[in-house]
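At this stage, I wrote out one protein, both as residues and as discrete backbone shape codes, and that material follows here.
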Amino acid sequence: MNIAVIGAGSVGGTLGRRFSEAGHSVTFGTRDPAKGVKGGVPSATRLVSVGEAARSADVVILAVPWGVVPNAVRELALTAGQVLVDATNPIGQGANGMSLDLGPNGESAAERIAAMASAARVVKAFNTTGANNMADPVYGGEPTVMLYAGDDPDAKATVRDLVAAIGFDPVDAGGLVRARQLEHVAFLWISLAYGGMGRNIAFKLARR
């Protein structure tokens, strides 16, 4: 599968490397390819502009800071049927510190991105934990959970396979509206990790 990873930070770099290791063809897209990708780029991948990366991709992973999302989506110029995985979180600074930047009616980042990229099939995933857990999602010999949400069944099946391919326990959280809850899960993980517990924590889903 041809995967475009948009973003040069820890999350984008880690996901791109993991997908490459899993046998997928990966292209990194950034606004300044000369600056490279955090953690380096595997020899089997390419580093190009945002628009070029998305042009022939089956799946596009959006892993950029929330503030640059509108510009990134415009540069992507996605075509009908392309799968866009939203790995972003709308984290901002409020009067009382870190907060979620929700839409006027409580809309998630994913719902707003779906409105911006109306031709694409948007799935929320890879936003509820840190890059360190994307590099190694196994704790105590068991995979930790990766929740995903979306409205298109085929796009969700594609994302489920990508989630499983890098070692997570994939769990379908429902339609794209459930991205609202996923972004709160992300906020909880960030709050715990940076509130004293450290980044080596992850969530599991117990089943009976």
